[in-house]
Amino acid sequence: MSDKVIIFDTTLRDGEQSPGASMTKDEKVRIARQLERLKVDVIEAGFAASSEGDFQAISAVAAAVKDSIVCSLARANDKDITRAADALKAAKAKRIHAFLATSPLHMAVKLRMSPEEVLEQAKRSIRFARNLAEDIEFSAEDGYRSEMDFLCRVVEAVIKEGASTINIPDTVGYATPELYGDFIKTLRTRVPNSDKVVWSVHCHNDLGMAVANSLAGVKIGGARQIECTINGLGERAGNTALEEIVMALRTRKDYFNLICDIDASQIVPASKMVSHITGFVVQPNKAVVGANAFAHTSGIHQDGILKNRETYEIMRAEDVGWAANKIVLGKLSGRNAFKQRLHDLGIVVEAEADINEAFTRFKTLADQKTEIFDEDIIAIMSETASAEEGEFYKFISMSQHSETGERPKSRITLRMGDKEVSSEAEGNGPVDASLNAIEEVAKSGAEQLLYSVNAITSGTQSQGEVTVRLAKGGRIVNGVGTDPDIIAASAKAYLAALNKLHDPSQAKLNAQMTP
Questions:
Q1: pLDDT (tens digit, 9 = 90+) per residue, 338-357?
Q2: How far is CA 13 from CA 49, 91, 200, 244, 503, in A?
Q3: Is 61 in contact with 45 (CB distance < 8 Å)?
Q4: pLDDT digits 0-9 by tens, 245-263
Q5: Burial category of 485 from C-beta neighbours within 10 Å (exposed 0-12, middle 13-18, buried 19 and up)
Q6: Which domain holds residue 153?
Q7: What CATH code is carried by the domain that includes residue 145?
Q8: Structural domains of the chain, count
């Protein structure tokens, strides 16, 4: 076996299944480019058959990415597989990832197919996919809860049909490390042609053991691909966290004796980008990428760190991309300096008009803040990208009054389509009043599921980053807004969410639960 572990990132597909984490095409391309800078081996860009939006996003990622394999998920049928192949046409290196449930529960209740029907369907689908691409991955959905004898039959058959990667997911997060590792090892031992494929693990975090199970899958089971997401993003309790896997393999190389090609210095930038785009804030005590991951408050710990870093740190913060906030630009900085910083951050902007729009936003912010940080630049580009996609609702201006003993009031002016409208409303606070004012004219009737505030950088001059999550008609959307004025940021976030509800291309169909 090789000592290299393939890192398969599914942030853009499985991560997007988190309620409210749906990403636009341009957002997916931006994250994919950052994953490429991270040197991820395989980028699963989406589920091509799930919606036209996902198809277009996969096609855009396939055209943009040059150094990583681009993958699309597909159910094990000709229609889905053809759709995946079409979406991947522009990819320099592509993979079709077909899945079919193999556990007794899923076959009987969800698929309503007999084991023999599932076996035949798996064989036919891989045979068909092999005619459209050389790199084919097969996932046995709910594989860990499948019967060993039947799973061995299915895996042996799809390898004969041309599958090059076999993935055994712990779809519901039921596994424990030693048992999961033994499960993979048993499969590899019992399947006669197991040496002809790469074995992969895909673990969910329902019991908090996704990372441990994945590591057991490679250490005990002999798997050589780990499927994971940035920040552990994913449906329910999330997926295996890429940053934890990578740093565990590096920090404990003495135990695992395995390598991966990830550029760890890009981990924190990737984490921040995904957090900003999805609105899923990283908890402060999150391993590797949390704000407190390398913070020391205890006097004893501080004393030890000052004497020797290794007394309380097993990793260096700078190795994963942490650094003190660096002032990169100010209001006197020119357009060329701004363009260079975009390049340094891995942000690709091809159209001059888009650069001009972003630079205008930068200058506006520089007039409000004396210090501009990398995080501010990323936020500016996120707003610019959103504007590029077309906005039905656009923030223009606002004023609000809040005084102790009086009910707060807000007046907001916005553009709706091709007309400018203004509205006033009261609320429990200035933010509530502002959102009520928007709803007075938008009349969306959406349910607000989440309102959260995060400071982009440190200090009272920091921009506020607000996330608003709305639900309507079975759809859940996320809106993110940034501004030094937290009330304005709240209004922008609400409008961003309304724009997604208004745009039918943002609708996404997840046809069924996936690995």
A1: 888 887 776 777 778 888 88
A2: 12, 17, 17, 19, 20
A3: yes
A4: 999 999 999 999 999 999 9
A5: middle
A6: 6-278
A7: 3.20.20.70
A8: 4
